[in-house]
Amino acid sequence: MDKKLSNLKKEIECFQAYTYDDIESFRIKFLGKKQGVLTILFKELKKYPIQERKIYGKKINEIKRKIQKKINMHSFKKLIKNDNFIHFDPTIPGKSIEIGSLHPISILKNRITNLFKKIGFSYVEGPEIEDDWHNFTALNIPIDHPSRDMQDTFFLYKNPDILLRTHTSSVQIRYMKKHSPPFRVFSIGKVYRNETISSRSYFMFHQMEAFYIDKKVSFSDLKQTIHYLIISLFGISRKIRFRPSYFPFTEPSAEVDISENRNIGWLEIMGCGMIDPKVLENVEIDPDIYSGFAFGIGIERLALLIYKIDDIRIYFENDTRFLKQFKSDLL
Asked: 160-194: string of b/e by CB count within 10 Å (b at 16+)?
């Protein structure tokens, strides 16, 4: 028995596994319940006197532990498809999970949302698929109006006219139809225009629109609100100017420019104006009692200026090298 156990120890110590089958064969050979070597040895112990049984039983159990240790040691090796082993070091740190970051457009949306909620505006949303009345006609842009050419539109159905909204002003119409003044409301969402894709334009962009309707709302209220937004985003160093302009749904109307810190003049960032009385009539609000202002601004254009980005297309490429540069605390 002693010689048999000694040879068994040497065989176990010399064992090396190279495939999963090697380990499994080793386990079955020594620990198999019916024909395993140790199972047979334990059965043979019955032939020995009680004193020798204790001695050999202890030695066999020691060998069993060595076998189990050998199997466990090989379990730390990782198999690949061709059944070869790759040595695995459990002390090596695992692969870190890359933490995502907010998109610059999302950062600006959150920033603007917080700014307007501070001054009593409520956030609302509307559908991106609109009908002609909400998107154009109710905003004083009838079907034969030349200003429709300014917003080359993606029509989904011609009869009835269903389209991808060209501005978030349609949210203004939907809200005013269901609510009575006074109210301060803003909306942020995607809008679509059939434009040539370039570094400065894209067929889809995010627009923020705000409007305020109450008794005796004036252009001064509009200017003060826009000053608040621009100074909050760009700082007090930027100069602001209002240029007379035309929009069919506001009267008077203006374009808003800000001074460019790189000494290249003025940059146009938004359009604004007092809501046209015809628009108020279309949603059954009496223009003799109420007045209001509205303005809209492109979020992508804001981000171009704030982050000094030269190409608008990069927003939509989902390049993590670009996105991870932005932190929500930059503004």
From this structure: ebebbbbbbbbbbbbbbeeeebebbbbbbbebbbe
CA distance 273 to 247: 8
* Cβ pair 189, 125 in contact under 8 A: yes
For 30, residues 6+ apart whose C-beta sits below 8 A from its C-beta are 12, 36, 37, 38, 67
pLDDT of residue 30: 81
The single residue listed with the structure tokens 């011609």 is 158
Which structure tokens are listed for 204?
């889809």
In terms of domains, do 217 and 168 share one? yes
What are 187's strand-pairing partners? Answer: 209
In a domain, 82, yes or no: yes
50: Cα within 13 Å, side-chain hemisphere: 0
Q: Using alpha carbons, select from 193, 197, 221 the residue that is nearest to residue 207.
A: 193
d(Cα 224, Cα 24) in Å, to the nearest integer? Answer: 79
* pTM for the whole structure: 0.66
Question: Is 281 a member of any domain?
Answer: yes
The answer to whether 227 touches 295, Cβ cutoff 8 Å, is no
Render pLDDT for 84-134 as a digit per residue (tens, 0 to 9). 545 566 777 877 777 778 888 999 999 999 999 999 999 999 999 999 999
Q: Are residues 12 and 59 in the same domain?
A: yes
- pLDDT per residue over 248-280, tens digit each? 999 999 999 988 765 667 888 899 999 999 999
Roughly what angle, to the nearest 10 degrees, separates helices 299-307 and 219-234?
A: 40
Tell whether 41 and 165 lie within a shared domain: no
